[in-house]
Amino acid sequence: MAVTTGMIGRGFYNRNSAPQWAAINYVLPWIVEAASGMDFADPPATVGLADFGCSEGGNSIAVMTTLVAACKEHTTRPIQTIHSDLPTNDFSELFKRLRPEGRSVFGEAVQSAAVGGSMYDQLLPPRSVHFATTFNAIGFLGARPLDRLPGYILPNGPSRLRGVGAVAEAEHAAFEQQAARDLEAFLTARSAELVPGGKLLVEVFGAGAEHRTCDGIYDVLNDALLAHVSDGTISRNVYETFYQPVYFRTLDELTAPVTAPQAQCAGLFRMERVESYEVPVPFVEDYQGSGDVDVYANAFTNFLRPFTEPVLRLHLGHDPDPSTVVTSIYDHIKGLLRANPERYPFHYVAHAMLLTRIG
To answer: Strand runs (DSSP E) across 94-190, as ranges?
Structure first.
């Protein structure tokens, strides 16, 4: 079974990814500073900029706009932006945004391309990329290490606040190991694509000392699914085999492949900067100001739906009318958030590291 088909398309992800953009925007100054110290004199003649996990392109193009401008301050060479995601990703919005009115959104001397494939594989020619980025996509696993996760729908387990469900230590270890293998594969693939001295910026949602980004999101989804198990809409087997193939790393887990003793990728990259941070969530701040629980519940649901629904649909494939069940689940989520928003607090914790290709 595929891990996921990507985000919901048709512009839905672009319209509901403001929290992701807040986490990305925090590290945009890193990009500008890193580009200012790069040497663009060596081959190849074209400056390659690649973003892995571009989805529908809204956030990806915004990042590239900053990166292209930063590079143009230091080189007159032509630039190519590359936007990559799974082959099943909806690239249509990306293509529309890349060339509005028949011209590159990035201006003159910039061409763009899209590449479909797993970011855990090498997707681009050797030494063809000067600056690579990925935002949040590294949190999605490359494979399902277990067939089922019977106690909860996420490898990291439920929040301490709710405590509804459990993930056994051995189960968690299987996902921890899969996430480590994925990260090593990603870094190894990017090391082949980057020029010596090239930069790699990795940002991902994560688990901090006080909060985890998963808390709230997956508690409310789990509660909604259990309600549908109770009324017979979905079977217990569907619940136990459905889990989100997402792992929320600690900062140490993110940096381990480069900095840990005998780290596999230590000879490939030099760590330039690393930070764990929490960003304000726009719809949470709006709710705190307005108190409008209906708007809050709708925005919260629309935020989590693009990345959870595609996985859910994969597990409802034998249902004669999966859309009816899916709609019912997300309507139930809205109802839970309206009735008890305090049960599902949402904090956006992110980790980021900036690496330089060595060797």
So the answer is: 110-116, 129-135
